[in-house]
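Late entry, written up from scratch paper. The run itself happened at the end of the previous shift, but nothing got recorded in the book at the time, so transcribing now.
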Amino acid sequence: MRTHRTRTALTGLAAAAVLGLAGCGGDDADTALPGTGDTGAGEDTTGEDALETLEPDDELVEPPVFAGGYGPDFVSDVDQYAQQQVQLDGQVTEVIQPGFFAMTAPDDPSVAPLLVVDTEAGSTGSLDPGTPVQVTGTLEEGFDVPTVESDQGVDLDDALFEPYAGQPFVVTDSVAVQEGATG
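Output as recorded:
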């Protein structure tokens, strides 16, 4: 019986001590939390606003260097967009295999189709020829089957991609179907 009363008394004392300490020290505005200038009461005693810093592995999202329709204006300056972010509106001409489709200018059939490598391959499963799309991604300089197979971890049917060998292509960040657009 004596052990139970001792434990109960010690438990009560410990609880009282914790509650008593929790109320201490909150009113002193001159006491900053170490290294912060923050008193704990929402006040900044340093007089400076906190600055957000980027870590070395943080990515900055750059706006596309070209945003518009895939057509003669884009094709005539395609070299200046290499290895940069572009956003292109166009129309699917064919789905070559899952994750790979070609698009062209809906209003100008003379513009050669552009190969699109959709890194979110599931999104091309619902695309059909004639579907209006907007692709955003990096314009790469020359399509090479072995390089793309290695980079994307896929096995491509080389014969299907012969028309695109050495041609510019886009590796996407996103593909969006343009609802209500007409081709």
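The domain at 66-177 is CATH 2.40.50.140 (OB fold (Dihydrolipoamide Acetyltransferase, E2P)).
(Scratch paper discarded after transcription.)
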